[in-house]
Amino acid sequence: MKPQASVLANLDEVRAMIKRHKLNDSIFAIIGLVALMIGLLTLLTLFVDLVMDGYPRFNLDFMSEFPSRRAGSAGLLSAWVGSLLVLSVTFISAVPMGVGAGIYLEEYAPKNWFSDLIEINVTNLAGVPSIIYGLLALGLFVYILGLGQSIVTAGLTLGLLILPVVIVSTREAIRSIPVAIREAAYAVGATKWQVVSQHVVHYSFGGILTGVIIGMSRAIGETAPIITIGALTFIAFLPPSPVSAEPPYLNFDWLFSGFTVLPIQMFSWLSRPNPEFHINAAATGAIIIVVTLLMNGTAIWLRYNMRKKIKW
Q1: Which of 42, 107, 204, 284 could be joined to 266 by an S-S link, Cβ 3.0–4.6 Å?
Q2: Which residues of 152-175 are buried (b: 16+ CB within 10 A; e: fewer)?
Q3: Which residues of the chain have pLDDT under 50?
Q4: pTM of the entire predicted model
Q5: Which fold has domain 58-309?
Q6: CA distance 95 to 84
Q7: Radius of gyration of the chain measured on its C-alpha atoms
């Protein structure tokens, strides 16, 4: 009878421990939910406040007019065109290099101290403050390379900023692919390149694309590095068009043109004492938040649909 009593006592202790752990899990889940709701409600409150303040400026004229000294007739044309061109350079300079580096480090790089050193530095660079990249770009791109305070300088600066993010997200997406897929491909005679290009990258493309979009959404709201390299706060003209009507039909003069972007234009209006300019700044802030949310939402939607279509 004693062994049976001991077993029952142990079972009671196990049940009590499980019950206690479930209670701790429930408490932690409630605390996490409360913290999440506080953050979301704070963001929602600030966003609604921006929308209410900037509502009078939500019209096509605001998007199609140049900045002006008169708040009522000032617009975002040069700012959103500048943001679009800068982000184009950012994408071209950072995404191919970042994805390629992530694939190399995860699939091809030998596992030694040198690759470990690179991995540590890439991870650390992802957390470096953006102003550091601005100072680096000011010394390297503006003064040493002589690119000036131009769109190409801003694009390369933001490219450096999001490059570690793209590399890390690419590696994480590749790591999520089961080893069995690689082994199955090797078993039927596939080469290393075929395994990586036709299987690993194919299955991880959704995660890679998500990381790229999240990095780009971070770049669109950056202000400190753009101010550091000398972006204009008032610009009443557009850069030259990238496309021309005459051969070779491509024009690269826009790369070296002066520019402004949405966060800089918002900062310029917010620093003015006239309250009417603050309405413009509120409208610009709401537009930046909406664009960022749309980019992140698109990333989540694409990742979900791509994973849904893939058959493991």
Answers
A1: 284
A2: bbbbbbbbbbbbbbbbbbbbbbbe
A3: 1
A4: 0.84
A5: MetI-like fold (1.10.3720)
A6: 16
A7: 26
